[in-house]
Amino acid sequence: MSIKLVAVSACVSGVAHTYMAAERLEKLCAQQKWPVKIETQGALGIVNTLTHEDLAQADVVLLITDILLADSERFIHHRCVKIGINTFLRYPEKVLSAVRKAASSPQETHIQMG
């Protein structure tokens, strides 16, 4: 099953982990053959902002973050999986399982992972 994924990556310092998580996710999605667009909220500000159209077309929103995201209310009505950056980097296969589960769940399903 191909899942159209959008994601936001953000860490406390806004430097290394934000971009490490984005790179790891790009590689995982390439392996799964899933299209993905990743917004980063880091030291450079918000880069590659997710548009309303991106969100409308997405099957799942993946929030890889240890901080409160800017403009987070835009995700309320979407299927979301939220996970901390360190957990994502350590257990990416669990995240992919949660994304698959969310994709077959009703809209507005929010899955919180460690």
Automatic annotation (TrEMBL):
Domain of life per record: Bacteria
Protein name per the record: protein-N(pi)-phosphohistidine--D-fructose phosphotransferase
Catalytic reaction list: D-fructose(out) + N(pros)-phospho-L-histidyl-[protein] = D-fructose 1-phosphate(in) + L-histidyl-[protein]
EC number annotated for this UniProt entry: 2.7.1.202
Stored PROSITE patterns: PTS_EIIB_TYPE_2
UniProt entry tagged with the keyword Kinase: yes
Gene Ontology terms, MF aspect: kinase activity; protein-N(PI)-phosphohistidine-fructose phosphotransferase system transporter activity; protein-phosphocysteine-sugar phosphotransferase activity
Domain annotation PTS EIIB type-2: ranges: 3-101
GO biological process: phosphoenolpyruvate-dependent sugar phosphotransferase system
A cellular-component GO term for this protein: plasma membrane
Keywords: Kinase, Phosphoprotein, Phosphotransferase system, Sugar transport, Transferase, Transport
